Amino acid sequence: AAGVIQSPRHLIKEKRETATLKCYPIPRHDTVYWYQQGPGQDPQFLISFYEKMQSDKGSIPDRFSAQQFSDYHSELNMSSLELGDSALYFCASSLGGATGAFFGQGTRLTVV
Amino acid sequence: AQKVTQAQTEISVVEKEDVTLDCVYETRDTTYYLFWYKQPPSGELVFLIRRNSFDEQNEISGRYSWNFQKSTSSFNFTITASQVVDSAVYFCALEEETSGSRLTFGEGTQLTVNP
Q1: Structure confidence at residue B1 (pLDDT)
Q2: Do B50 and A99 touch (CB under 8 A)?
Q3: pLDDT tens digit string along B53-87?
Q4: HEC assignment per residue over B66-107
């Protein structure tokens, strides 16, 4: 069965650079979620989109923005990267905002 | 306030032992969902189970079993006859009806199963 696809899997950026993370949800899923997991921490909710509209917002820095496109894929844009942004970024998707979101394999971002 | 508490930071067992991972949650919602995820060293989050607040029936799936008790706000996870491949971080998570579909995770329990 198709799963949530995230790209890239690994990304290394320098401080103050910009990064774009992509997420392709499970086919027919219309809701996408982004989570950030710092080293040794639990995942923290960043933002979600339902039918291309932002549906919920968590602890997402102002330097980050995200959107969901007409084909339901989503992108997380991160600017002015800081060392503390180094983390595992997960995307998850669900159908109609239903519970039980399925997670992608994550993008490991390292800021040096 | 921490809504999901996993008091056990690390657990170490020997293969074939049974192990229980504790999860205590806090919510004012009457409708909510509880989850367990497994995060192996490779990093992905693997969905294990979802339980809604109206279903207190315990569930068994192979060597895994879950005990949901609303009276104590607990959703504990037991692995029977543990195996080395069970070594991972396990997260309990809560989704509240009033908070949309976002998940609030506990801090995780690192389980190490030694041969």
Answers
A1: 58
A2: yes
A3: 998 888 888 999 999 999 999 999 999 999 999 99
A4: EEEEHHHCEEEEEECCCCHHHCEEEEEEEEEHHHCCCCEECC
Chain B partners within 8 Å of A54 (Cβ): none
For residues B70 and A35, give the distance between their C-alpha atoms in angstroms, rounded to a whole number.
28
Query: How far apart (Å, rounded) are the C-alpha atoms in residues B84 and A34?
Result: 31
Neighbours of A8 (CB within 10 A): 13
Which of A77-81, A94-98, B62-66, B96-100 is predicted least confidently? A94-98
Residue B100 has its nearest CB partner, among A35, A41, A56, at A56
What residue has token string 């809701």?
Answer: A31
Contact A86, A18 (CB under 8 A): no
Average pLDDT over residues A51-61: 92
Who contacts B82 (Cβ-Cβ below 8 Å, separation ≥6)? B13, B15, B16, B17, B18, B19, B63, B111, B113
How many angstroms from the chain centroid is the CA of residue A106? 8
Higher pLDDT, B11 or A101: B11
| Chain B interface test: which of A29, A42, A59 (most B C-beta within 10 Å) | A42
> Is pLDDT of A100 > 80?
no
Q: How many CA atoms lie within 13 A of B80 on its CB side?
A: 7
Nearest partner of B48 among B7, B84, B76, judged by Cα: B76
Residue A28: pLDDT band (50, 70, 90) is confident
